[in-house]
Structure to design on (217 residues):
């Protein structure tokens, strides 16, 4: 009898686990972009996946759901609900994961944060913005096109500019150099803190606290 009453109460308050309704209206979605496959795991282009993994670990979230062209999990941070996701598509089709996840959680573009690499920023720099153009990033461009809006927050992580003319593709798909790894580690931690501030306090506060430029140029 007690079990039946409990199930009825969960339905009434929409607390059944594993459903979109179980996540309060204040839910935020954090999506790290990258390419699937072990051959891309340690590349500069996949820094968004690295941040997503570290963020999930900090919040004790497991990527235990495989759906909507993504792996994702749900949890909370300081009383605010969030979901963390990594698309299982290639970078240039990221929107085919992000848009279904937005629908699942009934979110507006302003309630998601996309984490991406940026070849225009020096290693160690991060830049949060509330929206805007793609900056030539295929993942951001695909999300904006499929969502019909570019008014979604994004966290761009500098991956360095060490490539010559025509060498961009090889550069972004290369691993970080050993001497760069301490800076990468520091920047990933900084980015996780920024993403969690977005969850609790919003994009404006996150921008004010965490936008940083480590280089002199």
């Amino acid at each position: 009898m007690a079990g039946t009453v409990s199930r009825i109460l969960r339905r009434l308050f929409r607390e059944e686990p594993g459903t979109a309704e179980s996540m309060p209206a204040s839910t935020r979605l954090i999506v790290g972009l990258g390419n699937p496959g072990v051959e891309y795991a340690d590349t500069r282009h996949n820094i968004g996946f690295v941040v997503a993994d570290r963020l999930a670990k900090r919040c004790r979230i497991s990527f235990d759901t495989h759906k909507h062209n993504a792996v994702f999990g749900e949890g909370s941070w300081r009383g605010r609900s969030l979901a963390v996701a990594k698309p299982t598509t290639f970078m240039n089709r990221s929107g085919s994961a992000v848009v279904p996840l937005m629908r699942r959680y009934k979110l507006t573009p302003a309630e998601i944060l996309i984490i991406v690499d940026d070849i225009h920023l020096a290693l160690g720099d991060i830049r949060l913005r509330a929206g805007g153009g793609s900056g030539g990033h295929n993942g951001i461009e695909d999300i904006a096109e499929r969502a019909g809006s570019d008014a979604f927050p994004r966290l761009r992580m500098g991956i360095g500019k060490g490539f010559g003319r025509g060498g961009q593709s090889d550069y972004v798909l290369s691993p970080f150099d050993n001497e760069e790894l301490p800076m990468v580690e520091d920047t990933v931690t900084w980015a996780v803190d920024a993403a969690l501030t977005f969850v609790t306090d919003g994009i404006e506060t996150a921008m004010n606290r965490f936008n940083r430029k480590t280089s002199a140029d």
